[in-house]
Design brief:
Layout: H1 2-17, H2 21-29, H3 36-47, H4 51-65, H5 71-78, H6 87-98, E1 105-108, E2 113-116, E3 120-125, E4 132-136, E5 148-149, E6 156-160, H7 168-180
Antiparallel strand pairs: 1-2, 2-3, 3-4, 4-6, 5-6
Length: 181
């Protein structure tokens, strides 16, 4: 949903700001600004761009200068240091998700790993040194002792602190979310 919102904003840039994303990136190319806040401030003050669009342009400008990290690097960074003991749990969750079908897309990001089919059905977050939060998209599903309502990108989440927590109940919730996606 977030990716769709960003794509919509990019499409609406010319109508709402007078320039396309590429034109804004060209405007910024001549500047020596390297900090997000500085770029946002410049776009708002000098060009009258709203905060939301200035934020989008600044993010894209800064992202273009740095190569995208590889998926393996993103996952390795999430499970580095004190969170290293959680990596086998992550690996098991990925194994379970892949077992649902060939249509499961595993998309690592900086702070989480999104599980998608036609849309996101779950997200794996290394929440602390002692647990992973498995966020699951199951709108309308009642809360249980383990399945808690969430205000994040997904409707619910489950704390996963050990491999034993990746049990039949968790797999059933995850499969149902995949089936709905």
């Amino acid at each position: 949903m977030v990716d769709e919102a960003w794509a919509s904003m990019v499409a609406n840039l010319p109508e709402n700001t007078g320039k396309s994303l590429d034109e804004w990136l060209a405007v910024l190319a001549g500047s020596e600004l390297t900090k997000h806040g500085q770029i946002v401030a410049l776009l708002k003050k000098e060009h009258g761009v709203s905060h939301g669009y200035a934020n989008l342009i600044a993010r894209r400008f800064l992202e273009q200068g740095a190569p995208e990290p590889a998926d393996d690097d993103l996952v390795a960074a999430q499970y580095a240091g004190g969170k290293a003991e959680l990596k086998p749990i992550y690996d098991r969750l990925i194994e379970v998700a892949r077992g649902f079908g060939d249509d499961v897309d595993i998309s690592p990001r900086k702070t989480n790993v999104s599980l998608r089919r036609s849309k996101q059905f779950a997200s794996i977050v290394a929440a602390s040194k002692s647990r992973i939060d498995l966020e699951i998209q199951l709108p309308g599903e009642p809360e249980t002792d383990r399945l808690k309502a969430s205000k994040g990108m997904c409707s619910h989440k489950m704390a996963v602190a050990s491999l034993d927590d990746v049990d039949a109940e968790l797999i059933d919730y995850l499969r149902r979310a995949w089936e709905r996606a």
